[in-house]
């Protein structure tokens, strides 16, 4: 009898241990513009995609492609993506810019002559600097910093992204400047757009 009682206690404890290890999927409000027909969304997978790129889903089951993350620009000469308004593949003292009417970015002179700095009213400011005295943005207390707007690819005051890693996170989380929450296939500045593979031009 003691053995039976002991076995029941073990089974009961094992049941609760196993039950506590099961992860239940949370209900997520999926934005249809950010997913493909099968509901898959872009993912950060540095083992598969080069720097400044995300893995975007296609509309077939095994159809995935690496392309630029938002606020990064595809540069055909090097077949790589680089952050907008930074040096990237350009010469020292230059930065990579995608003008509104263009599809391919170009290297232009950086008036600050230092990578990561941008001139506003004859003063150079550092991208992403949240130090109040070095931040030109009006909403500093709301964590707005100088950066590149991922939708317009223009220099703007952008809110710092706060990513929370949970115990259910799979692998690495994307760096803040990857803007994974805004990633959409065929965004302006992407490889697909530059190569003419998108039906609508953003």
Automatic annotation (TrEMBL):
It comes from the Eukaryota. Keywords: Signal. Residues 48-137 form the DUF4789 domain. Residues 1-25 form the signal peptide. This is GH17899.
């Amino acid at each position: 009898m003691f053995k039976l009682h002991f076995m029941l206690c073990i089974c009961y404890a094992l049941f609760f241990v196993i039950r506590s290890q099961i992860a239940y999927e949370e209900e997520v409000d999926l934005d249809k513009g950010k997913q493909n027909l099968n509901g898959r969304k872009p993912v950060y997978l540095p083992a598969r995609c080069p720097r400044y790129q995300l893995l975007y889903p296609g509309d077939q089951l095994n159809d995935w492609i690496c392309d630029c993350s938002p606020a990064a620009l595809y540069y055909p000469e090097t077949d790589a993506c680089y952050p907008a308004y930074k040096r990237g593949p350009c010469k020292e003292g230059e930065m990579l810019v995608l003008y509104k009417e263009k599809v391919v970015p170009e290297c232009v002179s950086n008036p600050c002559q230092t990578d990561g700095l941008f001139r506003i009213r004859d003063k150079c400011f550092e991208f992403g600097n949240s130090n109040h005295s070095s931040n030109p943005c009006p909403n500093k207390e709301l964590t707005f910093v100088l950066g590149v707007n991922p939708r317009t690819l223009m220099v703007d005051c952008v809110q710092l992204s706060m990513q929370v890693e949970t115990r259910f996170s799979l692998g690495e989380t994307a760096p803040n400047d990857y803007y994974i929450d805004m990633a959409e296939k065929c965004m302006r500045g992407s490889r697909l757009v530059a190569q003419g593979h998108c039906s609508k031009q953003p």
